[in-house]
Amino acid sequence: MKLIILSFISAMVFACSPKLTPDHSWGDKRWVLYEMKGVPVQLSGTDKDASLQFNATEKKYYGSGGCNRLNGIYTINKKESISFGNAASTMMNCVDQAFEDMFIATLKTVDGYTLENNSLLLKSGKNIVLRFR
User: Fold this and answer.
1) Spans of all domains in the chain
2) Alpha carbons 65 and 50: distance in angstroms, whole number
3) Residue 8: what pLDDT?
4) What is the pLDDT of residue 25?
5) Fold of 22-132
6) pTM of the prediction?
7) In terms of C-beta density within 10 A (0-12 exposed, 13-18 middle, 19 or more buried), how is residue 63 classed?
């Protein structure tokens, strides 16, 4: 009986561990956007580039839209499915506000992901809409 209880507790601990989720290794990486909806994104090589980082334990993302800082929650499962909650964002007046608005709007449409050749590909349906490296 003790063995059954111990096995059950161990299974629950491992099932709840963020290290078992596909995003467990994403947190140490700043994913920089290099393509949106098939169009290459101009990169500055600074922290102002549109980017995302993930906190797998809390299921939160944060990053930059290119001007404003943004953050929110995300949901992921083991079948390459991901969705992003509404982004909270700073409200600075940006030179390229249209780009940032499109980035955030596109992020809301994402329902899947793939990791390929050190790139994080975010999908809407079968279409890759955001590419990060």
Assistant:
1) 22-132
2) 5
3) 46
4) 78
5) Lipocalin (2.40.128)
6) 0.82
7) buried
